[in-house]
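Minimal example, chain plus MRU.
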Amino acid sequence: MFVNNTHYRTIWPNPSGSSVSIIDQTKLPFCFEIVQIDSVEKMIYAISFMQVRGAPLIGAAAAYGIALAMLNRVDDDYLLLVAKQLIASRPTAVNLAWAVNRMVAHLSALSPAERLHAAWQEAAKIADEDVQQNQTIGQHGLKLIQQAHQKNTFHILTHCNAGWLATVDFGTALSPIYAAHDAGLAIHVWVDETRPRNQGASLTAWELGQHGVPHTVISDNAGGHLMQQGQVDMVIVGADRVAANGDVCNKIGTYLKALAAHDNRIPFYAAVPSPTIDANLAHGGDIEIEERHQNEVAYIQGHAADGSLQTIRVMPAESKAANPAFDVTPARLVTGIITEKGVFAPSNLAQG
Ligand code: MRU
């Protein structure tokens, strides 16, 4: 997608063959900063501290992490060690383990001498496939919006950031939105702020603004009210993992939006590339929910009037905070799952 009229992906290998570039998402929306990652350790840090985040992107980042590791050593022991470390860097999004396991399977079948070159090639393939899948999700989602769109502006609510910043390009939930906007449909997006890390207010609002899509940031608690007032026509979210029965695990707070959408008869879609579907997992209850540091809840970061970036505490110093990062929306609340293969009822996911 475009930033100030220049096309960017969220991650790309550098011509030197010894590093990759990423957009540091902890600095957005105030600062667009590109960071060079030249070791697997730095990639593990970038994933854990969310310089790169979003299920498809951390999959591609982990694949490049393996390629960076192969610059050090190409033996089996080391490959398995870094694979384990990368998988442990964030537990919930299945794309991460999927990409690492794919890299390990591919490289293990080759002689050590072939592994370095093959690792860079396979990581690039994973990144390119993600772009292709997300672009196609956009086309399938566009049809849903076209079918539901009346003459007036169509209002879509989204949670967290499942835009191009969460993927290699195009996004998942935002891909149909970009496609609809580009097709000339009048659309407007309600952007949940998504506490505690504010991916909606910081990232989704920023990228929609870069693309010229009309949007309004709302507090996380406003969505249900807007639905009751008839101001939401559709909900589209991404996912970090979808179980075989269609349960959708996504950013904390998604479940509450799905409940409100169900109560107000508003269609609720999850847009996911196929690596996000965990066919080996019967239902969402078995998904490991990442518990992040309580300081993400206790503090908030933002730009002060003088332009400086400041972090302030928003609760009593003696209070404890809990920070589960994801929740599971049961399949019964999900109208459909948009993948690159089409739109499926959650109960029909296995046929996709
Ligand atoms: O903690 P994050 O920011 O990595 O969580 C991201 C989300 O929950 C997204 O909604 C999900 O990964 C879908 S991204 C296409």
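Residues 112-148 form the longest helix (37 residues). The longest strand covers residues 187-192.
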